[in-house]
Amino acid sequence: MAVKFEILRRRSASDPPYTQTVIYDRDTDTTVAEALKYINAELLADDPVSWEHSCGQKKCGACAMRINGLPKLACDVRLKDFPGGVITLEPLKKFPVVRDLIVDRSVIFDDLKKLGAWLTEDAGPDSTGSAYDASRCLRCGCCLEVCPNFYAGGEFFGAAALASAARLISEAQGSDRKRLYGAYNERFYRGCGRSLSCRDICPAGIDTERLLVASNAAAIWKRLARSRD
Ligand code: SF4
Ligand code: SF4
Ligand code: FES
Hints:
The protein is α+β, with helices and mostly antiparallel strands. Helix content is 39%, strand content 14%.
C-alpha cells in the first residue's frame, strides 16, 4: 500500500514553513528512517529533506522528530506501525528549528553543564540499577517534547537532565553528592509535576519513575539525616 508522507519543511529558521507531500510506493515493512533515505535519494534528489541520523539502531538519538504528532526516533518506527496510510513528519517543537527536520538541541547539553553533572571525587563502587537505567539516555529530547513543564532556557531541566543527575547521585561521594542534591532539587524536584509522560515516550525505555523515586528518596533521607545532626 502506498504511504503519503506529509513533511513539514523550512529552508531556515527565518523562512516560513510549508508542507511537502510525497507518495512512497514501496514495502511498508521498513523504518521511517529508511523511507526518508529513499525519498531523499529517489524522489526529492534535487531538494532533499534535511534531517539528522547516524547509528540507525536507536543508539544515538539523532533522528528524533515528531511522527504523526508524537516524538519518536525515525529509525525505531516502521511504516506499517501507522496503518492509516498517512505519515506526518515534523521537527521537534520545543527546540529552535535549524532547517526542515533538524532542530538545535544544544540546550540539553547546556542544562547538563549548568547542573554540574560531573564528578570531581572518586565515584563509589556500588553502581545501582538506577545508575544503569540512567546511563542509557540518548539525549534525544523526546521526553522534553512531551513534558508540560519544560521549555528551552527555563529553570526546569526535565527528564533528560534527571537521567544524568540520577546516575551521578547514586554514585557520588562527599561534596559531589551534596552539590548534586542541591542542583537536583533546584532544577528538577521542585518543577516536576510527576505526570510521567516522559516515561511513556522514552525510546530508550528509561524508567524515569524509578529514577525519580530513587533520587527523591535519597534526597529526603539526606535531609532527615542532616536535621538529626
Ligand atoms: S530520558 Fe529518554 S526520552 Fe529523554 S533524552 Fe534520555 S533517552 Fe531521550
Ligand atoms: S514527570 Fe512530567 S513534569 Fe516531570 S519530567 Fe516527566 S513529563 Fe516532565
Ligand atoms: S539514527 Fe541513531 S537513534 Fe536513530
